[in-house]
Amino acid sequence: MIQDAGGEATPTARARNRRGEGARLRDELVAAAGRVFERVGSEDAMSLRAVAAEAGVAAPSIYQHFPDKHALVQAVQAARFAELRAVIEAAAARAADPAEELRRRGRAYCRFGADHPGNYRVMFGSVPDTKGPLTLQELPGAEIIEDLVGSITRAAAAGIAGPHDAFTTAVLLWSALHGIVSLRIAKPAFPWPDTEALVDAALTALAGVPPGPAGDAIA
């Protein structure tokens, strides 16, 4: 990216996509928008011109893949939720028992939000296009909640978590995790307790899961 005489960002030259490589440009635009979001932190503050400059293309190229800014935002949301799920599943796969699995899920969720605050705000800051209520499966990131329901169900079957309704407990835990991430992003100067301790406390209070040793979600 370079600046013209007036200080405006203009796209740098990029190699032209060969025939059939339109999907690559689409992926590059989504990645570029994610980098812009990490700087500006909201859909309103993001411009298509900034995304085009970040990707090294002319702004009209965006419209070959996205009809408007909101469609690009939704594509970024889908990509970030997929990344978040992959991070959580990778952490959960190393668990030795259902209690550790839940702790790893919660801690990995919060670490992802802390590492990507701009994108995290955008993930939850744009309302899907709809004229009515959506089913869980139609919502961005629904698989993460479904995975959490399964983890809670396994913990309850093992006698580790309380015999609560798994979906309700998952929603409560998600609300707690989202609150931890969002408030830490919004109020960084607050004297926050250790994030892992907060996650463990939420799991104990909401699901009856005992706290575990520090660091078992990220290593």
Features:
58% helix; 219 residues; elongated; disordered N terminus; mainly alpha; Tetracycline Repressor, domain 2; two-stranded antiparallel ribbon; 8 helices; single chain
Report on the structure:
- This protein has 219 residues and is an all-alpha fold.
- It has a domain at 86-207: Tetracycline Repressor, domain 2, CATH 1.10.357.
- It contains 8 helices and 2 strands.
- The chain has helices at residues 22-40, 48-55, 69-92, 98-115, 117-125, 142-157, 166-186, 195-207, and strands spanning 2-3, 9-10.
- The chain has a two-stranded antiparallel ribbon.
- Helix 1 crosses helix 5 and helix 6 crosses helix 7 (166-186).
- The longest helix is centred in the middle third of the chain and has 24 residues, at 69-92.
- The model is unreliable at 1-14 (pLDDT under 50).
In short:
With 219 residues, this protein is mainly α.
Helix coverage percent of residues? 55-70%
Number of helical regions: 8
Low-confidence stretches: 1-14
CATH class of the domain at 86-207: Mainly Alpha
Proper CATH architecture of the domain at 86-207: Orthogonal Bundle
Q: Tell me the CATH superfamily of the domain at 86-207.
A: Tetracycline Repressor, domain 2
Q: How is the topology of this model organized?
A:
Layout: E1 2-3, E2 9-10, H1 22-40, H2 48-55, H3 69-92, H4 98-115, H5 117-125, H6 142-157, H7 166-186, H8 195-207
Antiparallel strand pairs: 1-2
Helix pairs in contact: 1-2, 1-3, 1-5, 3-4, 3-5, 4-6, 4-7, 4-8, 6-7, 7-8
